[in-house]
Amino acid sequence: MDLLSFGDTGWGDNMLRGAGVTILLAVGSYLFGIIVGMGAAAMKLSHSLLLRTIAAIYTTVVRGVPELLVIYLLFYGSAPLIIDLASLFGYTGYFEIPPFLAGLVAVGLISGAYSTEVLRGAMQVIPAGQIEAGQSIGLSKRQVFFRIKLPQLWRFALPGLGNVWQLTLKDTALVSVISLAELMRVSRVAGDSEREPFVFYMAAGVLYLIMTTFSQAIFQRSEKAASRGVRRA
Amino acid sequence: MNKTLLGIAAAALVASASAAHAQDVLRIGTEGAYPPWNATDASGALIGFEIELGLALCAEMGRTCEFVAQDWDGMIPALLNGRYDMIMAGMSITEERSETITFSNGYATTPAHFAAHPDSPHVDIDSHDDVMAALDGAVIGVQVGTIHQNFITDHLPNAELRFYDSQDQLNLDLVAGRIDAGLADITAWLDLNEDEGSEAAVTFGQPMTGVDFEVFGAGVGVGMRHEDTELHDEVNAALAVLHENGTMQAIAEEWFGFDAALAQPDS
């Protein structure tokens, strides 16, 4: 158990810091994913064929290829591109997107593709009659969205979004391949360096479980809050 | 007029960029999770044979270096897209990898070594030729599909080979005296004795490497981009000096507990 102690002799502090990076990355990507998902869901429901096609390509491609591939492409694919761009401006040398940002964008885009479908489904559940009612009393499109659609959207979307959150939290482990010191990478480095992989992977498993269990409780409470005022059958 | 100005500005930029390049920090990619080659300590700092050798190498080349931790899976791609300029990550020189990157001369290897049960008559044999004579026709255990298997097939065709899926199974038979000798990486025997807390296996003869037997490969080398030809020469020259003055052997002794350093070709 000395291995997991705190300070310079043990890995306890490194593991907790890794868990912190995991949480930051997961929350960041999840929020980014929801913003992307809102946009893409709106595009999927729009009248423009072009917008619908772009959104369809996005969700099909990102959900259809392995998540690891998306991360590799964004990280290793973007570096030469950025270097080429920079050299146009006379800057030579190596330049890379900070791993945290690259990880956030990659996991966020993956998370966003799943959120899109959840949000699209939720948007379609709202009865057209309510929207017509809003329009009939002279509400603008904006007002209809913020006062009628959005408050109800959460109620329908939350169970699905809770699922997406769990996926996103676990997907952050994939970012360890670009050497960002999140929980998975820290456990692998510690386990291999100390030749005690089991100890560290177990500890990481426990930390992941704590995070998922705790966040599940939060989602249950928000689902309840979003459904207040709706009678239980 | 404008074009001329632009041209001058561009030339100035290029000149300043290449001037800066000469003093650039040389970046070395390593995994930090493969002891004793390279590892990470509990304070998060990189340690290990290659970290010390890398720093000695840079001192010899008169360059400033910094280590970059990189997951093994992306080791070669990250070199190619410029995240760092050299790989020192316990990476064995292979033909397949040499198509993508250029290796320096090998700087270290864990040699292959024969071992036997402590009661075996072979354990007192010292010279390589005597070992080969004694083991002619003997029962020798190897892990299947390894360079050690290839060595026996090439050099001891009369030996009776016993194949094992894992080193652990080989160890069991060796300890039980069911085979006359085993051939494996020297670290396998060190690990076995450490686990057993005693001399469960005794190594005999001489450590064998790719220097004397091609079948064992060229060892672990510094990986670099094909196009950095100046760097290739600089690194090879510095490695030769470090072996010549014994620095390389001393660092190897410190981290491996034996001399894992490879002799450098005369340049």
Give the topology, please:
The complex is a heterodimer of chains A (233) and B (267).
Chain A: H1 12-44, H2 49-64, H3 67-88, H4 99-125, H5 128-136, H6 141-171, H7 183-193, H8 197-226
Chain B: H1 2-22, E1 26-30, E2 39-40, E3 46-47, H2 49-61, E4 65-69, H3 75-80, E5 86-87, H4 95-98, E6 102-103, E7 112-116, H5 128-134, E8 139-143, H6 147-155, E9 160-164, H7 167-175, E10 181-185, H8 186-196, E11 202-208, E12 223-224, H9 229-244, H10 247-256
Parallel strand pairs in B: 1-4, 1-5, 8-9, 8-10
Antiparallel strand pairs in B: 2-3, 5-12, 6-12, 7-10, 7-11
Helix pairs in contact in B: 2-9, 2-10
What does this molecule look like?
The complex is a heterodimer of chains A (233) and B (267). Chain A has helices at residues 12-44, 49-64, 67-88, 99-125, 128-136, 141-171, 183-193, 197-226. Chain A has 233 residues and is an all-alpha fold. In chain A, helix 1 (12-44) crosses helix 4 (99-125). The mean pLDDT of chain A is 89. By secondary structure, chain B is of the alpha/beta class. Chain B has ten helices and twelve strands. Chain B has a five-stranded mixed β-sheet with strand order 4-1-5-12-6. A five-stranded mixed β-sheet of chain B has the order 9-8-10-7-11, with helices on both faces. Chain B has a two-stranded antiparallel ribbon with strand order 2-3. The longest helix of chain B has 21 residues, at 2-22. The termini of chain B are far apart. Classes of the chains: A mainly alpha (233), B alpha/beta (267).
